[in-house]
Write a structure and sequence with these properties.
The protein is of the alpha/beta class and about 290 residues long. Helices cover about 40% and strands about 20% of the residues. Helix 6 crosses helix 7. The two termini are about 20 Å apart.
Length: about 290
């Protein structure tokens, strides 16, 4: 298979999930970031199309998937990811997760290691508590957004409004997402690509899963589970990510079979700013 083909995955509770697959080679299922966003992996899929059969999907209640009332729990999303795997007839598959999706992919690998051939953990925040990274992230966010006073003023104006139109919601998101890129001259361009198409943020999903992570991540049980994970894991970081990369050290130390690649000139979406470095790192795992 080469060209993309949209499909509907039915989760075990009946919720319909959008999915598509393309490319050729070993199976690779992608888990997008958020929570509450949608698949933004068009460029990643194209980068890997000659090396992998790439499966992309929108998480429940998000993007092109069925709008629903949740439940918004990590356990539920792990089950949905497994429904995607079963739908495409994959006994085992490599997983690639980005940001929140890295947490989801890791959680699936911990729950079902026999169903995962390799894990690619991109721009995550490790397995420690939020205190390991969130204060520095918030400070870096303000500093990087503040490097352009016009953008900062407009973002503040939109953030202070009680209600936003759909176009204003997109504009606010693009301004926020622009901080994710090291190349400040192209930051708005890159962020605009993330928002095209604009499918709307599921804020309820975002809040619930963020709150669950803040309560449950960083436990001794999680560290022990990672130490027992007998799978090849690749950690890919952009050195200029505004989330401190030191937070990921906790995961790297725990995993028994891990390799880490840091792309020095990239931010939170490393494939956007160093596509060749990203492709080289990921295809090495797929080999």
């Amino acid at each position: 298979m080469d060209g993309p083909r949209d499909e509907t995955v039915t989760a075990d509770d009946g919720v319909r999930l959008w999915a598509t697959r393309s490319g050729r080679g070993e199976p690779l299922v992608l888990c997008h970031g958020g929570p509450g966003l949608w698949d933004m992996f068009t460029d990643v899929s194209a980068l890997l199309a000659d090396r992998a059969t790439v499966v992309r999907w929108d998480q429940r209640g998000c993007g092109r998937s069925q709008r629903c009332a949740g439940p918004w729990t990590l356990e539920r999303f792990v089950a949905d990811l497994d429904s995607v795997r079963r739908h495409f007839g994959l006994r085992r598959t490599a997983l690639l997760g980005h940001s929140w999706g890295a947490q989801l992919a890791l959680s699936h690998a911990l729950a079902h290691p026999e169903r995962v051939s390799a894990l690619v953990y991109v721009a995550g925040t490790g397995i420690g508590p939020d205190a390991d990274w969130h204060p520095a992230f918030a400070e870096n966010f303000r500093e990087r957004l503040g490097d352009n006073q016009q953008r900062l003023s407009r973002w503040r104006e939109l953030t202070d409004r009680p209600r936003l139109t759909q176009d204003e919601e997109r504009e606010q998101a693009v301004l926020e997402w622009s901080v994710e890129f090291e190349d400040r001259g192209r930051a708005l361009e890159h962020a605009g690509r993330m928002a095209d198409p604009w499918l709307g943020i599921n804020d309820e999903c975002h809040r619930a899963l963020d709150e669950e992570r803040s309560r449950t991540w960083g436990t001794p049980e999680l560290y022990a589970a990672c130490r027992a994970l007998d799978l090849p894991v690749l950690i890919v970081d952009g050195a200029r990510d505004i989330r401190p990369r030191s937070a990921v050290d906790s995961l790297e130390r725990a995993l028994p079979r891990v390799r880490r690649v840091v792309l020095p000139e990239a931010g939170h979406l490393p494939w956007a700013e160093d596509p060749e470095g990203f492709r080289e790192a990921v295809t090495a795992v797929l080999r």
